[in-house]
Write a structure and sequence with these properties.
Length: 324
């Protein structure tokens, strides 16, 4: 008896069905991301431009500093303040002839010493009035970038100040000893492995690094004293790392006024010579759709082993409030 073979088309149907299913499964994440991005674009959540404004004429530029201040941050890291993006906004506002004043909206515990200083330096190069509006938190590096403003507005319950520098190290020496694990380091000098997480810091190294921290701290105190036009001794007395409420900051001369963003906006308009309701140009710190796509395709959602080890071992200097 001869076995009947199904037609060729019928034999190929399961094969092509499997191929199409696999292809559809592979495309689903990209289609989903595309749908989310399209929805955000329609909703106005992602603006592929640097600034949002309505109308024309004299305006106040609004620039946001949100989250921990870093020299750079990934497109998907919305919890960090990317110094390079903020500096670009500052320079764009400085070049915009319509911008008569800048309102810096600060909501940050501080962060990198270098990143904070770069933002401060960029603001210092702008020959336009600068007003700071402090949100819930404007501490340490967040206060550093604010100190030289023409006017600082804090809410009564803003936490600000925390004038100081911090550098933290993690040592795994005790844990490694418990498990009989040792590390061998070959270096060219006694401080070449300074800050290594594989051993405790020596007393000599602590003295050495404390001098570095103190040097940067002294510059911080000088900057605040000059910006706020306060005696250095007064700033030094306040600079023990304490945070102050808006009310306390006003009493100590660290801010100029208690109020909210609207009060700060009115002050910026006044200093910029704008009468009536001021037009605003808001510089967005949200990533463009292209940056989001690059971020999604460029890395895993989890940090790599090398990134984790780098974060644990690098002796970072920070102007950051270390509270949770």
């Amino acid at each position: 008896m001869v076995e009947q073979q199904p037609p060729r088309g019928a034999r190929m149907a399961p094969f092509w069905g499997t191929v199409l299913a696999v292809a559809a499964g592979a495309l689903l994440p990209f289609l989903a991301c595309g749908g989310v991005l399209a929805a955000m674009l329609v909703a106005g959540r992602i603006v592929p431009g640097a600034a949002r404004s309505v109308g024309s004429g004299p305006a106040v530029a609004i620039i946001h500093v949100r989250g921990v201040i870093l020299s750079s941050a990934g497109a998907l890291d919305s919890s960090a303040a990317n110094a390079q993006t903020i500096i670009k906004h500052i320079r764009d506002a400085a070049k915009n002839a319509d911008v008569r004043a800048i309102l810096l909206r600060v909501e940050s515990p501080g962060g990198s010493v270098v990143a904070s200083d770069e933002i401060y330096h960029a603001l210092n190069q702008v020959d336009k009035p600068l007003v700071v509006s402090m949100g819930e938190l404007a501490a340490s590096g967040g206060y550093y970038i604010s100190a030289n403003a023409d006017w600082i507005v804090a809410t009564p319950n803003t936490l600000t100040g925390s004038i100081g520098v911090i550098s933290e190290f993690i040592s795994l020496e005790g844990l490694l000893n418990d498990y009989g694990v040792s590390a061998t380091t070959i270096a060219t000098g006694k401080r070449k492995d300074f800050g290594s997480m594989f051993r405790n810091m020596t007393a000599d190294e602590k003295v050495y690094w404390q001098a570095t921290v103190d040097e940067i701290f002294a510059s911080f105190v000088d900057l605040v004293a000059a910006g706020r036009k306060l005696p250095r001794a007064q700033v030094q007395a306040l600079a023990d790392g304490s945070v102050y409420t808006g009310r306390q900051a006003l009493a100590n001369g660290l801010v100029d006024e208690l109020g909210y963003e609207q009060e700060a906006l009115r002050k910026a308009a006044e200093l910029g010579g704008i009468t009536g309701e001021p037009r605003t140009i808001e510089y967005s710190d949200e990533p463009s759709w292209l940056q989001l796509l690059q971020g999604l395709s460029g890395r895993s959602a989890l940090p790599s082993r090398a990134e984790v080890l780098s974060l644990l071992s690098v002796p970072a200097l920070q102007m950051r409030w270390a509270a949770p």
